[in-house]
Recover the amino acids of this structure.
DNA sequence: CGTAATTTTCACAAATCCGTCACGAAACTC
DNA sequence: GAGTTTCGTGACGGATTTGTGAAAATTACG
């Protein structure tokens, strides 16, 4: 679920926004001013920031600018009426949306949803591509390359490999793998995992070495020195 | 340059928006109501629509929905204060932004710019023709050429192809395709996608090879080495 | 209102994958 | 090093998934 940071110097506003946001099942954190927001963003990962423009210590614009230097988080600005010039300026530093005070919490939530949705589809192209020596894994494209050559795999092989890689260097029991890759409603044989590990290893060719057997336990994807 | 269609029943509003839009060097066309907007969109290509919600004959929501069935044009809605319920609904049918009346023309223009910019980066250049070997795709003109010859396709085939191409090399599940191409309110069979993929492949002739089946997953448009 | 075009569903064939089993190899225990 | 447990693997029948043609339903448009 998405985590949201609410930045405003007024407690009452933070409280209202928090209430609505938690109703929508967002995880909420608060900051009292721009300075605190910058610090919190350095320490934590948020999916979105809702920030007032006028605040003591560090205003919303400056805080946004500072945060954006390190992280590309969507930001919705709250501002008082009649700050038109500021609005335009806001769009230029890349604020994702504006809501004018006094705002309706429902409207704010609709915009939060829209911006989060927008971000999600855009980020789908920020393709994660993992590389271990000559083994390349394209999660978004659902493809695996062995020494530059596409390795064709069955769905279960992909799922299994992706799960192991997502939990890199972590020991995975057969039960855990069955639950995660096959689903909680699979009631078959433990050893089914073995068979698929076998096939996955064959598909990986020389990079089968990354799939390590943990006797009496299960398997893991190990990417350390070999 | 971008072409904008302004849809509002009040002459004065159309005039104001036209003035500002032409100052920004957009090409402007007008429609008096939703019905006229739908017709004009069928006949011409616009890069964006600015549309009032309340209009005689056909309201903004219904018009948007109708237009979106055939063309994926960004839409900014204008609405009077206090139509909160409608707003939420509006975001769900995929309106790109909202501006509340009475609006400031400057703000409206800033949003137009933002939405157009967003669209351009998403479309990876909206006016450009994409070329994959002998397969040419004209996103703006909504046309596809196979070895220089225009390929006639049904609207759904276009939509499906365009969506796959916009998400090139990305694995797409049937559900994702249904939601994106058919709309969130489609409650039919998954396999409908398969049938349209079949027809799309036939239309693409030898370039059917770009449409790759991802067993157990869905499909993708793959433009890598073959 | 009627015809044509498009979309959707359905059924069946073809392709592919999955889960189980059996047996031998490897590893661990004592 | 014999016994025991665990793992690797090939094979096979059944289960899933996909491709496709055709019928049915819906929609577009004169």
């Amino acid at each position: 679920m998405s985590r949201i940071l609410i930045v405003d110097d007024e407690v009452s506003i933070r409280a209202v926004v928090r209430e609505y946001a938690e109703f929508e099942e967002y995880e909420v954190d608060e900051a009292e001013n721009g300075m605190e927001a910058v610090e919190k963003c350095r320490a934590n990962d948020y999916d979105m920031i809702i920030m007032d423009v006028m605040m003591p210590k560090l205003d919303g614009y400056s805080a946004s600018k500072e945060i954006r230097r390190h992280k590309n988080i969507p930001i919705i600005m709250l501002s008082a009426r009649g700050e038109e010039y500021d609005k335009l300026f806001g769009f230029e530093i890349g604020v994702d949306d504006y809501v004018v005070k006094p705002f309706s919490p429902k409207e704010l939530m609709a915009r939060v949803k829209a911006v989060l949705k927008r971000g999600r589809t855009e980020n789908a192209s920020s393709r994660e591509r993992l590389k271990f020596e000559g083994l390349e894994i394209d999660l978004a494209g659902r493809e695996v390359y062995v020494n530059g050559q596409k390795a064709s795999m069955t769905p279960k092989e992909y799922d299994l490999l992706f799960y192991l890689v997502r939990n890199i260097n972590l020991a995975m029991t057969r039960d855990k793998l069955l639950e995660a890759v096959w689903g909680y409603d699979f009631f078959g044989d433990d050893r089914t995992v073995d068979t698929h590990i076998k096939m996955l290893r064959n598909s990986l060719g020389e990079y089968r070495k990354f799939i390590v057997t943990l006797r009496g336990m299960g398997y893991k994807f190990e990417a350390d020195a070999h």
Chain B touches chain A at residues 84, 87-88, 91, 104, 106-107, 110-111, 113-114, 118, 122, 167, 169-171, 214-217, 220, 222, 224 (CB under 8 Å).
